[in-house]
Amino acid sequence: QKEVEQNSGPLSVPEGAIASLNCTYSDRGSQSFFWYRQYSGKSPELIMFIYSNGDKEDGRFTAQLNKASQYVSLLIRDSQPSDSATYLCAVPSGNTPLVFGKGTRLSVIA
Amino acid sequence: GAVVSQHPSWVICKSGTSVKIECRSLDFQATTMFWYRQFPKQSLMLMATSNEGSKATYEQGVEKDKFLINHASLTLSTLTVTSAHPEDSSFYICSAWEGRGYTFGSGTRLTVV
Which residues of B touch A90 (CB under 8 A)? Predict the structure, then answer.
């Protein structure tokens, strides 16, 4: 059973701080990794994807991948109250298009 | 960006009735559509994969006679929940690959009373 693990949170950070979200995966053969944001009652929206080891930056978001440790993270700089949501880590695995973690609930306190 | 339009957004139905959910890819062709279900405070779980012009592939534990999937064209896939029961109440979401990533429909909140 391929698994994607995330701390469910909630993770609370003050406005303007850096939020760090972590994810581990079990399928060592996974090649691509996705971060989605899901607001309550809404469907997920893609924030970033990463394929290569190291960091990938997009605006206030940075994805970090370490395939040796089977670990992928998402950093949100200058966190805003509007960033409060559940962040889902997702990994394609075998024939399954995306295996999702349970998500980490982020709360940015103004 | 690529959009998958999903309807209805929410539906309330009586136990024993059937409900159809539609997903349309608006500006790209979706050869394959993925159907997920999400219970409260749970993650998205893949239910089935539909391919245009062929039978859907269902995940283990998903009743194919209860969740009928049709993918008649490259832009339309439907999920019909037949003889719905309260335990089928959930958030149903479709998804397709649009070249950069998987894009999701807006979801359908199904409540069976």
Answer: 102
